[in-house]
Write a structure and sequence with these properties.
single chain, binds zinc ion, globular, binds NADP nicotinamide-adenine-dinucleotide phosphate, alpha/beta, seven-stranded mixed sheet, 26% strand, 347 residues, 17 strands
């Protein structure tokens, strides 16, 4: 039997959030029912809820950083039991057959993974995300949250954590590497911690000096502010790897030039507008410009276990459902230290 649950929804693009109800499907044999405890606010929620990428599906219930407790399991569920602390990230299903799915990179599913919200499930139902009290998810798309990670800080790992961990691993971050993290918001503060834990020399490139103490506390060896004249010029030829987390337009050429010979710049930030660059910025030092999209389920569990082992977690500000509109404004102003997390009991 389907259930009606409470959710925080936005009825149209760029419209204030309101409380409402949505329907969750009945628990199928492979499903778990999760009582949501916390839901992180990712900048992608803002891009989606404001139709900055594409026309959205309304009413929209965002939220793809979910931490909760299993309250019911389907009869074929073997991976979870009632009472487990679990997480759900950016997608809740994928075809399971294609090469990316078979190799644990479901985020690149040939048929298109079913995203946690603002997406159509394979049965045609629109998906609703974590700004709600409960969610029903197939067990294969649910993660175990290690006991060592405080519950309210765990939710952001499900997107901000894996989105930065995955490219750092893919481009083999380790000792002897110079890594730059551009933008220290939700994603950026996780990238700094992971790159540091993997043994790299880490430089934060932020707009201002205001986050320097925090950045060094997260493990950065160096901190630069683009508001200061000549910052990027002084860094020319420095980095092996750049993780760009900026949600807005950037000067791609100036950043590419801070890469060494054969260096790589990875976009994880997804600005609304197309970005441009001069091809000379690549050819002059055989540089690469690329992008990365969240991470697969297996790697997400690896990231959670790595986080627990290294004492890495998100720095969060827990808010009530009443404060989500204001939190969106603060994220857009880069005034977040470093992730807002909604207490789901207030929805
Ligand atoms: P966020 O918390 O808002 O952080 C973005 C940071 O970028 C800000 O804190 C700020 O850092 C910097 N920034 C913002 N506006 C800027 C501007 N105009 N010029 C220069 N720097 C600016 O956002 P987030 O949640 O980390 O997400 C970042 C981006 O990644 C978003 O576009 C989001 O949609 C995208 N994303 C992508 C994936 C993926 O799989 N690829 C997954 C999740 C999110 P400073 O104050 O330090 O300058
Ligand atoms: Zn996200």
């Amino acid at each position: 039997m389907t259930t009606q649950i409470s959710a925080l929804l936005t009825p149209a693009p760029s419209t204030a959030f309101e409380r409402g109800t949505i329907t969750r499907r009945a628990v199928r044999p492979d499903d778990v029912l999760i009582k949501i405890a916390y839901a992180g606010i990712c900048h992608s929620d803002i891009h989606n809820a404001r139709d900055e990428w594409a026309p959205g599906m309304y009413p929209m219930v965002p939220g793809h950083e979910i931490a909760g407790i299993v309250t019911e399991i389907g009869k074929n569920v073997t991976k979870f039991k009632v009472g487990d602390r679990v997480g759900v990230g950016c997608f809740v299903d994928s075809c399971g057959q294609c090469e990316p799915c078979r190799t644990g990179e479901e985020q690149f599913c040939d048929q298109g993974a079913v995203m946690t919200y603002n997406s159509k499930d394979y049965d045609g139902e629109i998906t609703y995300g974590g700004y709600s009290t409960h969610i029903v998810v197939k067990q294969d798309y649910v993660l175990h949250i290690p006991e060592a990670i405080a519950f309210e800080t765990a939710a952001p790992l499900l997107c901000a954590g894996i989105t930065t961990y995955s490219p750092l691993r893919h481009w083999k971050t380790g000792p002897g590497m110079n890594v730059a993290v551009i933008g220290m918001g939700g994603l950026g503060h996780m990238a700094v911690q992971y790159a540091h834990a993997m043994g790299a020399h880490v430089t934060i490139i932020s707009q201002t000096r205001s986050k320097e103490d925090d950045g060094r506390h997260f493990g950065a060896n160096d901190y630069r502010a683009t508001s200061e004249e000549g910052t990027l010029k002084a860094l020319r030829g420095t980095f092996d790897l750049i993780i760009n987390t900026v949600s807005a337009d950037i000067n791609v050429d100036a950043l590419l030039k801070t890469l060494k010979l054969d260096g790589t710049m990875v976009f994880v930030g997804l600005p609304e507008n197309s970005q441009s660059f001069s091809v000379f910025s690549l050819t002059s030092q055989r540089r690469s410009l690329t992008g990365s999209n969240i991470g697969g389920i297996k790697e997400t569990q690896e990231m959670l276990d790595f986080s627990a082992e290294h004492g890495i977690t998100s720095q969060v500000e827990v808010i009530s459902a009443d404060d989500v509109d204001e939190a969106y404004e603060r994220v857009v102003r880069s005034d977040v230290r470093y992730r807002f997390v909604i207490d789901a009991t207030t929805i």
